[in-house]
UniProtKB/TrEMBL annotation:
It holds the Pfam family HIT. GO terms for molecular function: catalytic activity. A motif (Histidine triad motif) lies at residues 106-110. The active site is at 108 (tele-amp-histidine intermediate). InterPro entries: Histidine_triad_CS (IPR019808), Histidine_triad_HIT (IPR001310), HIT-like (IPR011146), HIT-like_sf (IPR036265). Signal peptide: none annotated. PANTHER family: HISTIDINE TRIAD HIT PROTEIN. It comes from the Bacteria. Residues 9-124 form the HIT domain. This is HIT domain-containing protein. It comes from Paracoccus litorisediminis.
Length: 124
């Protein structure tokens, strides 16, 4: 696992050094609009703790942080109107490392919706 870079852009957002458009904040989790949205709904969900990737978070975060993050996603999809009770669905994506083409090395979940998002990946 690469060392966590405390100067990555999301760490700076968490420290309040860079503004963000917050959608939801809980004790351990922040959700905010992506700066370059790829869909009508494009929100990033991040843990407040320092984790590089989903596997880093899943392996190393305390249970309370994982529970908080997971429940925050459920609240968020409802509040964004993309959950399956009120809306028409969404895609959740997380990119990790070079092959995942991860730009920001702080674990984040993309929630994309508001239109049909298309096929999961382009066939190679
Ligand atoms: P990744 O490729 O790492 O999965 O996605 C990083 C995402 O972060 C991209 O969708 C990009 O548009 C978004 N992003 C990069 N810098 C900023 C920023 O300063 N603010 C916000 N809100 N999003 C950002």
């Amino acid at each position: 696992m690469p060392a966590y870079d405390p100067n990555n852009i999301f760490a700076r957002i968490l420290r309040g050094e860079i503004p963000n458009r917050t959608v939801l904040e809980t004790e351990h989790t922040l959700a905010f609009h992506d700066i370059m949205p790829k869909a009508p709904v494009h929100v990033l969900v991040i843990p407040k703790g320092a984790y590089v990737s989903y596997d880093d978070f899943a392996a190393n975060a305390p249970d309370a942080e994982i529970l908080d993050f997971t429940r925050a996603v459920a609240r968020l999809t409802r509040e964004l109107g993309v959950d399956l009770d009120n809306g028409q669905g969404y895609r959740a994506i997380t990119n990790a490392g070079e092959h995942g083409v991860q730009e920001v090395p702080h674990f984040h979940l993309h929630i994309l919706g508001g239109r049909n998002i298309g096929r999961m990946i382009d066939p190679a």
